[in-house]
Amino acid sequence: MRSARTITAASLAAACLIHPAGARADVVLDWNAVMETAVAGQNPFNEARIAAITHLAVFEAVNAITEKYRPYLGTVTAPPGASAEAAAVVAAHDVLVHYLPAAAVSLAAARNASLAAIPDGQPKQDGMAVGAEAAAVMIAERNDDGSQTPQFHPPAPSAPGVWQATPSCGPLGGVFLHVPNVTPFGLRSGDQFRAGPPPALTSLRYARDYFEVKKLGRIDSPYRPQDRADVARFYAAVLGVATWNPAVRQVAAAQGRSLTYNARAFALVNMALVDGLIAVFDTKYNYTFWRPETAIRAGDTDGNPLTRSDPGFAPFVTTPCHPSYPSAHGAIGGGAREVAERIFGKGGHAITLSSAAVPGVVLHYTRFKDITRDIDDARIYGGIHFRFDQEAGGRMGERVGAYLHRKHLRPWHDHDALIEEDETVREDVNP
Asked: Contact at 8 Å (CB) between 49 and 391?
């Protein structure tokens, strides 16, 4: 695991400049950017878990004051007139410094900078106390949630269709074996939306998707256009938290919604990311399906006359060390997209994604679904997933996102819910 990145003065300044000209400042958006920087370097599950705890604490703090939505826990109280902005700042800071103590100095600087913009007085002091309480109760809620002791899937004997360790794996085997047993943030259980099995090795569907990734995903494929190579490299380096938080943050800043509206949006988006991971790893380790890297090298053993082996196959990007089916990037993308579309609308957006980890690649989007489409292509042109992995992951994520949006942090009044869920939004896929 890479060491956690500290928050520099420059990154805090960038966080505070995310608002377009004319938009009012919003500490929820500012601290979403601070959170994204702070968690970078954790493994993808820890990133998502800390992000969800942070934004649920922010939501509980802000909503205890504004009382717009049904709370997540409902144990935080606020005195009249407390500052929701001060509450949000302290809630985010206290969660992040608890889980990332190495970043304490830079997080304190960010906290002080945010609080300095809020007028001194009793409302500010009361808001800070509410934020501290919300952080404390969320941290306590997630103690002993099953995430503390990583487990690994030991390498299995070689057999057609069975996951085998790939070159990125360490000696302990497949990673994130413990994730299906982590207590979900909003789902009833990790297996609530378990996907059906992957296609049979002898099926035409398997052969078709096998041929696609074999042709397009090979490291030296002449069939991979530059734009697909770019998205493959980008989404190999930029995962759930660093994809969906900046995307939603840009849309939220452009729409200029209220502090409470945005607090709820980021809580639900990050719940979808972490619960999507819990759900997808439940399915992954239920079926333990082999990766294209293994399958293509052993194509003559799968019983399908249409698949031909290529013992020299190597993928364009590094294969992650866990089973192929379904795609984790597909699942969390499907969940985050489902939530974001229901809250902010499907299209008409201006989203730009870039990363220092992939210099020279800048991606532009006007619809959330185009992000998920690029993620699907990225995993196939990268040579690490079959198309059916992506489709199954996306469907699972949509079900997770729809369920979380329907069951949690709902408006208090039915009239408000009807205004939010207009006729342009899809019906729940799992009513």
From this structure: no
What backbone phi and psi angles, to 5 degrees, belong to 233?
Answer: -70, -40
The one-letter amino acid at 150: P
User: Topology of domain 179-420, per CATH?
Assistant: Vanadium-containing Chloroperoxidase; domain 2 (1.10.606)
In the chain, where the domains are located: 9-141, 179-420
Record the pTM.
0.92
Q: In the predicted model, is pLDDT for residue 430 greater than 90? A: no
